[in-house]
Amino acid sequence: MILSYYVQINKLAGNEDVNLPCKMSEQASGYDLYAAVAGEIVLAPGERALIPTGISLAMPEGLEAQIRPRSGLALKHGITCLNTPGTIDADYRGEIKVLLINLGQEPFAIARNERIAQMVFQAVPVVNLVEVEELSETQRGAGGFGHTGK
Ligand SMILES: O=c1ccn([C@H]2C[C@H](O)[C@@H](COP(=O)(O)OP(=O)(O)OP(=O)(O)O)O2)c(=O)[nH]1
Ligand SMILES: [Mg+2]
Fold first, then answer.
1. pLDDT tens across 75-97, in order?
2. What is the tally of structural domains in the chain?
3. Which residues contact 84 (CB under 8 A, 6 or more apart)?
4. Does residue 46 lie in a domain region?
5. Atom 24 of ligand 1 has which residue's CA nearest to it?
6. Which ligand places an atom closest to the C-alpha of 64?
7. Tell me, what's the pLDDT at 1?
8. pTM
9. 129 in a structural domain
10. Can you give the CATH number for the domain in which 46 is found?
11. Which domain holds residue 81?
């Protein structure tokens, strides 16, 4: 079954040259996000930076977007998203930004229009939290954090 939605996308002023998020293969899960940095920025080992993408979105209620690292950047350069997966709320209208961190040993340069991360859309159920005095019993109960063994 294929779920299909329309999501509005807006290029922010001054970013007309920055590519729109793009799927790199027909059935890719993620739309690659392009850096909207001015010129180039360099992340020293251990350094983090909030990278602009030059775009904003309006998704329908019931969708979210997740910002995830690109595995190639992680493997080759130790570049990942610090808050992965980043959460883009359906009602957020600001610029999408990517919090990158350099966990590698070498400085890493990011140029304008380079692909820095990917954005995956997910359906989010609408949940109503109902406060109660007691919860239903289960076999697991409160067991967790490895209580079933290694
Ligand atoms: O990687 C990210 C994560 C978040 N956001 C934007 C969209 C999101 O809707 C908003 C808030 O994100 P989140 O809820 O993760 O952050 P918070 O620290 O809880 O901030 P807030 O109090 O604004 O919700 O920031 C991004 O652009 N990139
Ligand atoms: Mg929040």
1. 999 999 999 999 999 999 999 99
2. 1
3. 67, 68, 69
4. yes
5. 89
6. 1
7. 87
8. 0.95
9. no
10. 2.70.40.10
11. 19-123
